[in-house]
Specification:
- The chain has helices spanning 21-32, 61-66, 79-90, 109-116, 129-141, 172-187, 215-218; strands at residues 2-5, 11-14, 34-40, 43-49, 99-103, 121-125, 147-149, 162-166, 191-196, 208-214, 231-236.
- By secondary structure, it is α/β, with parallel strands linked by helices.
- The strands form three sheets. The protein has a seven-stranded mixed β-sheet, with helices on both faces. Strands 1-2 form a two-stranded antiparallel sheet.
- Helix 3 packs parallel to helix 4 (109-116).
- It starts with a strand and ends with a strand.
Length: 240
């Protein structure tokens, strides 16, 4: 009972009818995710995420497709996003009173922390409609409000002061196009913050590392779920 934007921008139809946004959020909260508390210094929050106790944790790809879910990237707080969230929690001036884009927002962790740290306006973008449902759900859970969009923003410039990009370097083609776009935004004056645990396609030689966090300090079970990565970092583009 769903029609939604898949992770590659393709519209996926499941049966004939379209699930209402509210119905999807209700299923996410009651059936697909568990409440996970998080602490970044003095900042505390909670997110509805897929955990080992969630039924979806053990689903096969076929079972996920049968549920109309595809790959539920939105159900996890990935290490790059956690690193960005901690950095912003510890450095609120990075977003305070600024307009912020959280690109490929997923569960919304970085967008929500930005709003909690008094960003003027936060847009969370993700081409997956289910991710937008997750972001809305998690924002409300934290008594926060972020604007959401499923528009593909690569190549666009809406004048954001700060652009956040967590965990976007898992694919060569995507990493290349995103980095060229981020570089163009940086040239006109935007602050770019990238969160990543050191994936192969992260263009490290073109970046400055400004923070590094051991994964076990970002999540107790992080080392179990991230293929041997032991830390996650925040990177920015060097000044011209």
């Amino acid at each position: 009972n769903a029609e939604y934007m898949g992770v590659h921008g393709d519209v996926i139809h499941v049966n004939k009818s379209k699930m209402a946004h509210r119905s999807l959020s209700a299923r996410m909260k009651s059936e697909w995710t568990k409440l996970v508390p998080m602490h970044f210094g003095d900042l505390s929050m909670s997110l509805q995420l897929i955990t080992k106790e969630s039924p979806l944790w053990s689903y096969t790809l076929n079972e996920l497709d049968n549920e109309g879910l595809g790959c539920p990237y939105w159900g996890f707080a990935w290490p790059g996003g956690r690193a960005l969230a901690r950095f912003i929690a510890e450095n609120p001036k990075a977003v305070n009173d600024k307009t912020v884009l959280d690109f490929a927002s997923g569960c919304g962790i970085t967008a929500i922390v930005s709003k909690l740290q008094r960003a003027k306006d936060v847009v969370a973008s993700d081409i997956d409609h289910l991710a937008v449902c997750a972001i809305d759900m998690n924002a409300k859970l934290n008594n926060s409000f972020v604007r959401t969009t499923t528009e593909d923003l690569i190549g666009k410039d809406h004048g954001w002061d700060v652009v956040l990009a967590g965990d976007v370097c898992y694919d060569k083609e995507l990493s290349t196009s995103v980095f060229e776009w981020l570089r163009s935004l940086h040239k006109r004056g935007a602050t770019i913050l990238i969160g990543d645990p050191g994936r192969h396609f992260l263009p490290q030689k073109h970046l400055n590392q400004i923070a590094e966090y051991p994964l076990h300090t970002l999540a107790p079970d992080a080392l179990d779920d991230n293929n041997g990565c032991r830390s996650a970092s925040v990177w920015t583009l060097p000044s011209s």
